[in-house]
Write a sequence for this structure.
């Protein structure tokens, strides 16, 4: 319905009626508002400002001389600060270079000391062999001189016998001027080799022992040279008493683990972190990043009546209750280990295993190296630094998990394996975390 503005004396609300000019202004504003509020995609251009207004605004935002001077001062201070920082960084780089050279020199000195020790030991060993050869040669020379004297006597006796033979053939018994020449001695003894002569030889037994000792030193040196790099990643590992099976006891320093003596009172096993059926324990250290290395001494488990052992790592989510596969190292996706049982060494993960061969000599110390960031887990025979098993991100034919990326912190873990038929009788059952910080 249209409103008759002329006939209507007032507008709703009690205001005075607008004039014709006012109506035009209202219509223009309505057109402007409708164009701004419309849903058209065309951009609305602002009204151009006058040059006078632009000059006024430019004059208003132009900084003063004092502001410019202050700004210059701030920039100069910032420049001086940046130059000083760059100089400090260059000095740090030079200090790093000097420190690296000093470390290199110290490494060279240590290796030179080892080479000097090896050369000195080589000279001493060769001198010992030379002395043995000289003593043996002197004894042989003495025996040779005895035989040479005997040879001279035999020669003289042979000459006398030959002359006597010639005279008897010619019928002459006397020599010139009536001197009777004696005949060959009748009691000339024939010399026989002495049995002691056969014993004159180099001390071959000592030489063989020396070679075995040198072989052992060389093998130990070859093992220790790569081991020194692993020792740089060594971490202090102690057992968490709250995770131990009730019949397992931890030594005072936290590094030894074994069955309690018969008759000892076992702690209650209601703790949620405690293994209740499997002789297992986890360490208290969580390996969540970087590289870590530790060693476990398992020689006490290899004595008379010894059972077996498993050394590895596990997630905190490893189940602790029951005797099923979920609570045993290597029998689930939450743990990895190497295991020794009845002369057999094997690596386990996700209830799959790789036989590491029958070994005439059991492993004495197990070294474990973890690179959590790269998903690498290596097991070593720490005595010879032989690599026993490597779990890595590479595909393996036995373990069906293609990538062993660790998604949680890892905890060092140990399990004691009771020998078959050992129920009710004692068995060797002690392992020890090696104190690598004391090396």
């Amino acid at each position: 319905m249209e409103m008759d503005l002329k006939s209507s004396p007032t507008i709703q609300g009690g205001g005075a009626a607008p004039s014709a000019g006012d109506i035009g202004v209202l219509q223009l504003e309505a057109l402007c508002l409708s164009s701004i509020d419309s849903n058209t995609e065309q951009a609305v251009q602002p009204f151009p400002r006058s040059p006078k207004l632009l000059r006024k605004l430019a004059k208003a935002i132009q900084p003063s001389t004092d502001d410019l001077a202050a700004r210059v001062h701030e920039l100069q201070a910032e420049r001086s600060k940046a130059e000083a920082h760059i100089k400090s960084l260059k000095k740090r780089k030079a200090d790093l270079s000097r420190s690296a050279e000093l470390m290199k020199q110290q490494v060279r000195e240590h290796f030179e000391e080892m080479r000097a020790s090896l050369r000195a030991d080589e000279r001493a060993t060769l001198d010992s062999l030379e002395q043995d050869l000289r003593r043996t040669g002197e004894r042989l020379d003495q025996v040779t001189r005895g035989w040479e004297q005997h040879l001279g006597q035999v020669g003289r006796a042979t000459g006398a016998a030959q002359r006597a033979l010639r005279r008897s053939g010619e019928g002459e018994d006397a020599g010139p001027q009536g001197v009777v020449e004696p005949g060959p001695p009748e009691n000339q003894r024939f010399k026989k080799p002495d049995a002691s002569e056969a014993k004159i030889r180099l001390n071959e037994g000592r030489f063989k022992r020396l070679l075995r000792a040198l072989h052992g030193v060389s093998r130990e040196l070859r093992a220790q040279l790569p081991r020194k790099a692993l020792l740089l990643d060594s971490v202090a590992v102690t057992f968490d008493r709250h995770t131990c099976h009730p019949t397992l006891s931890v030594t005072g320093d936290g590094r030894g683990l074994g069955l309690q003596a018969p008759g000892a009172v076992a702690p209650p096993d209601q703790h949620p972190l405690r293994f209740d059926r499997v002789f297992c324990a986890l360490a208290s250290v969580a390996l969540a990043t970087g590289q870590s290395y530790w060693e476990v001494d398992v020689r006490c488990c290899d004595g008379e009546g010894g059972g077996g052992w498993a050394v590895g790592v596990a997630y905190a989510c490893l189940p602790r209750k029951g005797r099923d596969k979920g609570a045993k190292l290597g029998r689930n996706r939450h743990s990895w280990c190497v295991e020794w049982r009845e002369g057999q060494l094997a690596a386990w993960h996700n209830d799959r295993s790789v036989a590491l061969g029958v070994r005439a000599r059991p492993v004495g110390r197990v070294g474990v190296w973890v690179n959590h960031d790269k998903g690498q887990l290596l097991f070593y025979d720490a005595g010879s630094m032989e690599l026993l098993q490597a779990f890595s991100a590479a595909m393996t034919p036995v373990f069906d998990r293609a990538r062993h990326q660790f998604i949680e912190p890892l905890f060092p873990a140990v399990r004691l394996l009771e020998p078959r038929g050992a129920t009710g009788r004692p068995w060797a059952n002690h392992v020890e975390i090696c104190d690598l910080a004391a090396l």
Summary: DSSP finds four helices and 15 strands in the chain. The radius of gyration is 50 Å. Confidence is low (pLDDT under 50) at residues 1-40.
